Amino acid sequence: MPNAAYALDMPENRTSCVVFSSPHSGCDYPDSMLRRTVLNRSVIRSSEDAFVDQLFAPAPEFGAPLLAAAVPRAYLDLNRSADELDPALIQGAKRHGHNPRVASGLGVIPRVVANGRAIYRGKLTMDEARLRIDTYWRPYHKRLKSLLAESQAAFGQAILIDCHSMPHEAVALAGKPKSNHPEIVLGDRFGASASGVIVDQIESAFASAGLRVARNTPFAGAYVTQTYGRPGRHQHAIQIEIDRALYMDEENIAPNAHFAEFQAILRRVISEIAHIGQEQLPLAAE
């Protein structure tokens, strides 16, 4: 089994109410899974948000914690509810209404990776599914909740930045001219998970760095933003999707020649986002 559910990098001084999380960047694939999968190591990693934790690594330097998954998405998806079990994969799992994510094989324990490629030979037992959830899903979300509660207690509000990457083809096929393809997609569930003022500031930070930004299309946010975005309670959750072509070779799952340059650009954006969490403090104290 993977050695840990997550890695947490805390700042020396927590000066921002922002919390960064990367639930899909884990790459600790257990031998037991690799023996059972029909996929090779490269294909099984296609669902992974590879290197996103490295891209957001500077966050603690600017007073904000970074929580990053260690467990791979193909093994357990931390951006799904614990009860999104797929009957087509998990023995004894019951179907509860129509859930498009589960139906497509992308439940809490995925049945497929990118492009619908099946992961396993046969089914998994319910005991194994529960073990994965209890060992990795629950600790990750317990820690995420506590980080947000700490921000709320210290600063009067919390801003969760849910960090992801998206395949280049996801934006290349969006029907827009190449020059208009978004490089960053911000998801706030169409305004339901975060204050528009905060999302405007985050969009401005990326746009000022010369990046093309879109909102909610094609990604509006999933379980994490839906669960933790409570703007009426001063808890905001914004999903960030980054075009992988900006920093990685998708076919070989390796940093490309622009990785260091993009990392430097994102460092400045992270600084500005963390500063948003400091700017809000006087408002939160009122």
Summarize the structure.
With 286 residues, the chain is an alpha/beta fold. It has helices spanning 31-36, 41-44, 52-55, 100-103, 126-155, 168-172, 196-208, 223-228, 259-279, 281-285; strands at residues 6-9, 18-22, 66-69, 158-166, 184-187, 213-215, 235-243, 248-249, 254-255. It has one domain (6-285): 3-Layer(aba) Sandwich (Aminopeptidase), CATH 3.40.630.40.
Please tell me about this protein's structure.
There is one protein chain. By secondary structure, the protein is of the alpha/beta class. The protein has one domain (6-285): 3-Layer(aba) Sandwich (Aminopeptidase). Helices cover 34% and strands 15% of the residues. It has helices spanning 31-36, 41-44, 52-55, 100-103, 126-155, 168-172, 196-208, 223-228, 259-279, 281-285, and strands at residues 6-9, 18-22, 66-69, 158-166, 184-187, 213-215, 235-243, 248-249, 254-255. The protein has a seven-stranded mixed beta sheet with strand order 1-3-2-4-7-5-6, sandwiched between helices. Helix 7 (196-208) runs antiparallel to helix 9. It is globular, with a radius of gyration of 18 Å.
Descriptive key words:
single chain; 286 residues; alpha/beta; 7-stranded mixed β-sheet; two-stranded antiparallel ribbon
What is the share of helical residues? 25-40%
Helix-strand sequence: EEHHHEHHEHEHEHEEEHH
CATH architecture: 3-Layer(aba) Sandwich
> CATH homologous superfamily, by name?
Zn-dependent exopeptidases
Strand order of the largest sheet: 1-3-2-4-7-5-6
Average pLDDT figure = 92
Q: Catalogue the unreliable spans.
A: 280-286
Most strands sheet: 7 strands, mixed
Q: Shape, please?
A: globular
Instruction: Provide a count of the helices.
Output: 10
Radius of gyration: 18 Å
Number of domains: 1
Strand proportion, as a percent range, falls in 5-15%
- Broad CATH class: Alpha Beta
